[in-house]
Amino acid sequence: MPQLPTVNGCIHLSVEAGCGGTTFALQIARDKLANGEHVVWVCNEIPDGLRMSQIYADVSPVAVSKLHMAAVGDNVIQGISSAQRLIPVLQSLGLIVVDDWAPKSGRVSTEVSANIRELIENASVKNTPLLLISAAYEDASGETGWKARGDIDVSTWFLHKSQDGISKRELFHGDSISIYDLLEEGFILRK
Questions:
Q1: Cα dist from 125 to 39, 46, 87, whole Å
Q2: In the chain, which ranges are continuous DSSP H helix?
Q3: I want to staple 90 with a disulfide (CB 3.0 to 4.6 A). Which of 24, 38, 52, 133 is the partner?
Q4: Does the 1-132 domain belong in CATH 3.30.230.10?
Q5: What are the structural domain ranges in the chain?
Q6: Spatial contact of 68 and 38, defined as CB atoms under 8 Å apart
Q7: Distance from C-alpha of 156 to C-alpha of 166, rounded to nearest angstrom
Q8: Per-residue pLDDT for the chain (191 aa), expressed as one digit of tens each?
Q9: Alpha-carbon dihedral of residues 82, 88, 91, 96, nearest 10 degrees?
Q10: 3-state helix, strand and coil shares in percent for the chain, rounded to the nearest 5
Q11: pLDDT at 142
Q12: Per-residue pLDDT, 155
């Protein structure tokens, strides 16, 4: 029974700081790996080892070996280029994740935006799901609430902490809102 919505096409997950965006992506990736698919993951730094071991506890080491992770520090363009090179090479590529692709403040550089757009196009041609994660920010005027960084024309989901509990999260995707508890084993859908 899937706990998280299916990532089809390209999704920009815009997250409130500290609410589990990386955990969300690890959980989506876990399901792809468990199905024998490859996952390409580009990030600033490797996700927390304890969190990964909790989420991947029931996934075989052979399946986890299909997780191709590129920790590139601040050089996100290098990571995007690596992902681009893997798209035509990997058979059964089930997901590409680019975690923290946009800066937490200021504008996204023209070069990063161009590389992200090219990655979106190449993933679309191969029909490979792409999950782009960045920090959300609040509209200073207070009129529109949360906003996503970068100017990319894809579906945007918002993940935020709920006012109703310390481990409760709200995912706004399409016209739906899903409520989750964020626990050690990941996101658990509230009934």
A1: 17, 28, 10
A2: 21-34, 49-55, 61-64, 76-86, 110-125
A3: 38
A4: no
A5: 1-132
A6: yes
A7: 24
A8: 458 999 999 999 999 988 999 999 999 999 999 999 999 999 999 999 999 999 999 999 999 999 999 999 989 999 999 999 999 999 899 999 999 999 888 889 999 999 999 999 999 999 999 999 999 987 666 666 778 888 788 999 999 998 887 899 999 998 899 999 999 889 999 87
A9: 40
A10: 25, 30, 40
A11: 64
A12: 94
Query: Token pair for residue 57?
Result: 């506890």
| Euclidean distance between CA atoms 185 and 111, whole angstroms | 37
User: What confidence score (pLDDT) does residue 1 get?
Assistant: 41
Handedness of CA 119, 33, 58, 7 (dihedral sign): positive
Return the number of other C-beta atoms located less than 10 Å from residue 91's C-beta.
6
Tell how strand 137-138 and strand 130-135 pair up. Answer: unpaired
Beta-bridged to residue 32, according to DSSP, are none
- In one-letter notation, the amino acid at residue 4 is L
Cβ of 185: how many Cβ atoms within 10 Å?
13
List the one residue out of 140, 120, 156, 152 whose CA is nearest residue 12: 156
Residue type, 15: V
Rounded to 5 degrees, what are φ and ψ at 83?
-60, -40
In a 3-state reduction of DSSP, which class is residue 81?
Answer: helix
189 vs 178: CA distance, rounded Å? 7
* Torsion angles phi and psi, residue 155, rounded to 5: -70, 135
